Amino acid sequence: MSEQPTILVPVDYRPQSMAAYEYAKIVAEATSCSLTLLYVIEEQGFFTKKILNKEQRAAIIHKAESTLKELIQNDKNLKVRGISAFPIIQKGKVYQRIIKIAAEIKPKLIIMGRTDSSNFKKNIAGTNTHHIVREANTPVITIKGCDEVTTTNHILLPLDLTHPVREKIAKAIEMAKFLDAKICVLAVLQSNWLSKKIKFKKILNEIKRIFNKYNIECNTYLKITKKSPISKIINDFALEIKADMIMLMTQQEMNIHEYFIGSTAQEIINESDLPVLTIIPHPELKIDIKHHLFKALVDPMRIFGKLE
Questions:
Q1: Dihedral, CA atoms, 288, 290, 296, 300, nearest 10 degrees?
Q2: C-alpha radius of gyration, the chain, whole number
Q3: I need a labelling partner for 204 at 20 to 30 A (CA). Which of 64, 82, 215, 281 fits?
Q4: CA separation for the pair 155, 109 (Å, rounded)
Q5: Whole-prediction pTM value?
Q6: What pairs with residue 164 in β-bridges?
Q7: For residues 247 and 152, is the Cβ–Cβ distance under 8 A?
């Protein structure tokens, strides 16, 4: 595998997986990345292991390898777009293998398909997607389909301005630079208090200044509404402004060592018709306070809130 930055794409040949593969080609071409296609042969149960002999298991692996290589070799789009692609076959639990390979090859992104769920609360906790979004130390893009998405250069960034946002802005700057994208920052205020409106507008103006400092086009919006849920407001607004993607950076602390996806973020991921880019700060990935991006985020009036 080359030293070129890569994007990890788990594939299982189902429609959502192939939609993620098609979208990954769009992102790879825009960012000059290669693709690493990962197929996981799911861990077999005790009974199956006893039935299959060594030769049969080897045949399964060989078939998986040849099928993945054929997908790459027969894809004329890869050659037309100048994208290199590499196959990897793994055995085990899907989400564990994806997280392990991501830790080894350090991709710029993981791009994977997600299924529709008629009962979100029941289904989200057990999905591979949820495990990977929650546990991977790599930004993850999840996508339902790819028919309407052809670019990656207009990102909606919802921010909760009642919490510190400085680290999130720094990460958003890095991702916007990587994708060569403009940013639309949305804050939702569910009250009509004048003092909060003034403070939120002040913060949004400062956020816009920071993005502009890094030559990133930025528009900011303050939506005042008592409607809920917030996830629907955000998803509807993304379609209204014709965004290409929603970027989420959110965590809630269950205890000092564990992070998980907040309920609003879960609903956005599950319900959005657009790709959703999720970056969850893990303790080991916190940006150093001396990081160069923080130099632009001088906060003498503490409008960004108290840092941890």
A1: 100
A2: 21
A3: 281
A4: 16
A5: 0.83
A6: none
A7: no
pLDDT (tens digit per residue) in 153-188: 999 999 988 888 888 898 899 999 999 999 999 999
Classify residue 231 by its DSSP letter. H
Check whether the bond before 15 is cis (ω within 30° of 0): no
Closest CA to 178 of 291, 284, 32, 293: 32
**Helical segments of 127-277, H only:** 128-135, 166-179, 194-213, 230-240, 263-271
Measuring CA to CA, which residue among 140, 143, 141, 98 is closest to residue 116? 143
If 0-12 CB within 10 Å is exposed, 13-18 middle and 19+ buried, where does residue 144 land? Answer: buried
Which CA distances in Å does 171 have to 28, 178, 248?
Answer: 20, 11, 11
Q: How many CA atoms lie within 13 A of 55 on its CB side?
A: 0
| Residue environment code for 95-114, b if the CB has 16+ CB neighbours within 10 A, otherwise e | bbbbbebbeeeebbbbbbbb
- Under DSSP, the state recorded for 163 is S
**Alpha carbon distance 71, 273 (integer Å):** 26
User: Distance (Å, rounded) from C-alpha 89 to C-alpha 68?
Assistant: 8
The residue behind tokens 């999130």 is 168
> Confidence class of residue 49 from pLDDT cuts 50, 70 and 90?
low
Between CA 247 and CA 253, with CA 249 as vertex, the angle to 5 degrees is 155
State the maximum Cα–Cα separation within the chain, in Å, rounded to a whole number: 72
Q: Cα(218)–Cα(170) distance, rounded to whole angstroms?
A: 14
**Are 8 and 36 in contact, with CB atoms under 8 Å apart?**
yes
